[in-house]
Design a protein that fits this description.
By secondary structure, this protein is α/β, with parallel strands linked by helices. Helices cover 41% and strands 16% of the residues. The strands form 3 sheets. Strands 2-1-3-4-6-5 form a 6-stranded parallel sheet, sandwiched between helices. The chain has a 6-stranded parallel sheet with strand order 13-12-14-15-17-16, with helices on both faces. It has a 5-stranded parallel sheet with strand order 8-7-9-10-11, covered by helices on one side. α7 links the parallel β5 and β6. α16 packs parallel to α23. It is globular. It binds thiamine diphosphate and magnesium ion. The site of thiamine diphosphate has 17 residues, from α21.
């Protein structure tokens, strides 16, 4: 290497040595030294149009691939800009590695007013990330990253942050990159605990499983278990597709419906796995009306006894724990044989849908028809996605990405870019509302630049639809809920993307299929009144 090895080079070499192959970011004068050695590592750097979107793209990348991406941001505004995406990832247990510069060491905490100064940058990030540390030496860089990589493997996934002062980034170092130790995530659960869980489930007349995002790799065991005990399985949005939604035991992601909450209330044993059972999993502020015994399985000990106290708390990995439980329960007839397959409940539910939901459902089915089974749909805070949590048929986990935990508008497009970068061979689609898309629409340029075959579907109801409806329901005159929209199709063309307005289901399906064959992004405007 002709360049001297600087700490900046060492950071990227360490990341590369530990499996990071993609960085989303925006360079600045403070992070120049992070870029000196990047080409030599083979890491791919993707320039986005706003740091928030570097974070959302890293989030989409991680959810699609299971691997963390890194985000490189400058001190100060780069850090504050990415915070929303860091909070979003933290709330949905998504791993990511944020590396930022800080001003020079001698200035830290002194408030001299240096460029990009924050009073305490790491403290700002500590409020949202899993870990946030500042390095004061090359050895700190190594030690902090080692701790972060360990946490990413051992704990419930969270974003981690490393701040490196810009004078340190430029310093020479004699340290050479190393591969940190690997850790298995499967915390072993005792045979005694497994036996207790099996006994509880064997004694249940009306067993129910609630599967969250933490159970994504446990689908096969959940299916076996629910079949053996003749129960039902409901997922959260993050767990959507863990068990194929067409399975007779699957009620899909339906916790938001009162009818399904009543079913939960009648279950005598509920097994909740890899879920916080939070407000954003249930999509109502109501507490789930549980009356049965509750078994919780979670990697995060804090979740085992929060506002839903477990009767049996199991700290462990979902896949290995459920494999053991599914292998132990007796196969017998339970309540599903009597109460009927999930389709009976689904039909009842769907009969109650009003016409806006029927319209959105028709659009969702048209989108489904245009996509292969393994397609990844990156969604946003829009009415069509709230319904899609339940109504978009999904037979595999990790195919429906919703910013559910934090609810940040603007997620869909940058997350879809991240997912498509991670899985170029898979169909990836962004699905956003007309207002939310405008939060991050500038990333269409990134998708054009990268030549990503990426349909971007805009559900256009010419309003901040959900907020309008909520105001009406609360007896508030609808105010500040209509914003003038751009001509989306013309805007797409101006960015160098394809763009077209589709009318009705058949056109939407056809346009989507064409968009998947187009070697760049296509913005598809879908007008709600056409359905
Ligand atoms: C960053 C952020 N700001 C504000 C909100 C509040 N909010 C939630 S949905 C919404 C309106 C979204 O409108 P649109 O994208 O058109 O979706 P629609 O409800 O019309 O389907 C707003 C402002 C939010 N979730 N996130
Ligand atoms: Mg709208």
């Amino acid at each position: 290497m002709t360049d001297p090895t600087t700490v900046g080079c060492y950071v990227v070499e360490l990341l590369a040595a530990n499996g990071v192959d993609t960085v989303f970011g925006i360079p600045g004068v403070h992070t120049l030294e992070l870029y000196r050695g990047i080409a030599a590592t083979g890491i791919r750097h993707i320039l986005v149009r706003h740091e928030q979107n570097a974070g959302f793209a890293a989030d989409g990348f991680a959810r699609a691939s299971g691997k963390p991406a890194a985000a490189f941001v400058i001190s100060g505004p780069g850090v504050t800009n990415i915070l929303t995406a860091v909070a979003q990832a933290a709330s949905d247990s998504v791993p990511m590695i944020v590396v930022a510069s800080t001003p020079v060491r001698s200035s830290l905490g002194k408030r001299w007013g240096v460029l990009h100064e924050l009073r305490n940058q790491a403290a700002v990030v500590t409020g949202v990330a899993g870990q946030a540390r500042t390095a004061f030496s090359a050895a700190d860089v190594r030690d902090h990253l080692r701790a972060s990589f360990a946490a990413l493997q051992l704990e419930r996934p969270r974003p981690v942050y490393l701040g490196v002062p810009l004078d340190l980034l430029a310093e020479p170092t004699s340290l050479s990159p190393e591969r940190f130790p690997r850790f298995p995530r499967n915390v072993p659960v005792s045979a005694e605990t497994i036996r207790e869980a099996v006994e509880l489930l064997d004694s249940a007349d009306r067993p129910l499983i609630i599967a969250g995002g933490g159970s994504r790799e446990a689908g096969e065991s959940i299916r076996k278990l629910v079949e053996a005990v003749d129960g039902y399985v409901i997922t959260t949005a993050a767990g959507k597709g863990v068990v194929p939604e067409g399975h007779p035991a699957s009620l899909g992601a339906s916790l938001q419906f009162p009818e399904i909450q009543e079913l939960v209330a009648t279950a005598d044993v509920v097994l909740a796995v890899g879920t916080e059972l939070s407000e954003t999993d249930i999509y109502t502020t109501n507490r789930l009306p549980m009356t049965g015994r509750l078994i919780r399985i979670d990697l995060d000990a804090a979740k085992l006894s929060d506002h839903y106290a477990s009767d049996l708390a199991i700290q462990g990995d979902a896949r290995t724990t459920l494999e053991a439980i599914a292998g132990g329960v007796a196969t017998r007839a339970g309540w599903r044989s009597e109460a009927g397959p999930a389709t009976v409940w689904r039909q009842q539910l769907e009969q109650g849908f009003g016409s806006p939901a029927q319209a959105a459902m028709a659009a969702l089915l048209a989108i489904r028809a245009g996509l292969p089974a393994e397609a990844i749909v990156c969604t946003d805070m829009t009415q069509i996605a709230y319904l899609g949590n339940y109504a978009f048929p999904t037979d595999q986990p990790g195919c429906w990405l919703l910013p559910s935990g934090y609810g940040a508008l603007g997620y869909a497009l940058p997350a879809a870019i991240g997912a498509k970068v991670a899985c170029p061979e898979r169909a990836v689609v962004a699905l956003a509302g007309d207002y939310g898309l405008q939060f991050t629409l500038q990333e269409l340029m990134t998708a054009v630049e990268l030549g990503l075959s990426l349909p971007v579907i805009v559900w256009n109801n010419s309003a901040l639809g959900q907020i309008r409806d909520d105001m009406r329901a609360a007896g508030i005159a609808a105010t500040a809920v209509v914003a003038r929209n751009p001509d989306f199709v013309a805007l797409a063309h101006a960015c160098g993307a394809e763009g077209l307005r589709t009318h009705g289901a058949a056109e939407l399906t056809e346009a989507l299929r064409n968009a998947l064959r187009h070697p760049g992004p296509t913005l598809l405007e879908v007008v709600d009144t056409d359905f």
